[in-house]
């Protein structure tokens, strides 16, 4: 299709000494501090297919992501308290309706506004992520349940199917600049492609997956997604027997077809624990 494009996507190269990759999150950047990370990246030009008009081919349990159209009632996205008070409840309702889940707990959100030249590691000024990744691993997903749910409920919740799903949408204007690319789970080799990466915070440790290059990866995007559209991105599923998609590698990327003067990308993602009876 004319709207398909080529994106330069950044894949992970693990440390050559065999140590686990890590990111020091909001760490000391002084000359005496340890490096902010210990891995490198390799860029690969990948075809990214525009799925607009054929979104129905991509569902959470097959591809690992699912597009939809429903405008948010909350529209300003300027105040965290208002976002939690207004946008969280409507997003919980939307996730329940799309997935059939019985309980949804949103545990955080990130607003990204691309500002060339500004550092991307300031938690108050997050930029689009430019490396292929998955937000959670199995251990970090279980830790999220333990961290965000009452201790008395955790054992029963972990016996049921649960997922971590992000709901992502543009804000203010269409995401023509730096769109979001999603890798169809059916093209991912989960045994070979995924590398756990430690996230080292001052007070805790998390874990994500970096992704190694695989020429079989099938990348998708929806050109010019509007604020009235959203995508659900599966980051974890406790069903891991091969019957459903477990996760979705994803990344922001620079579309070389972006017209000059296009408004810079602004988006919001919510991260949710999703439980089923």
Break the fold down into its secondary structure elements and pairings.
Blueprint: E1 5-13, E2 22-24, E3 40-50, E4 65-69, H1 80-99, E5 103-113, E6 133-134, H2 138-148, H3 154-159, E7 162-170, E8 180-183, E9 194-200, E10 205-211, E11 219-221, E12 229-237, E13 250-252, E14 266-275
Parallel strand pairs: 2-9, 3-11
Antiparallel strand pairs: 1-3, 4-12, 5-14, 6-10, 7-12, 7-14, 8-11, 8-13, 9-10
Q: What is the mean pLDDT?
A: 94
E-strand count: 14
Outline, from the CA principal axes?
Answer: globular
CA radius of gyration is: 18 Å
Query: Into which percent range does the helicity of residues fall?
Result: 10-25%
Q: What's the SSE pattern?
A: EEEEHEEHHEEEEEEEE
- Share of residues in strands: 25-35%
Per DSSP, the total helix count is 3
Q: How many angstroms does the end-to-end distance come to?
A: 41 Å
As residue ranges, the low-confidence spans are none
Strand order of the largest sheet: 1-3-11-8-13
Secondary structural class = mainly beta
The biggest beta sheet, please? 5 strands, mixed
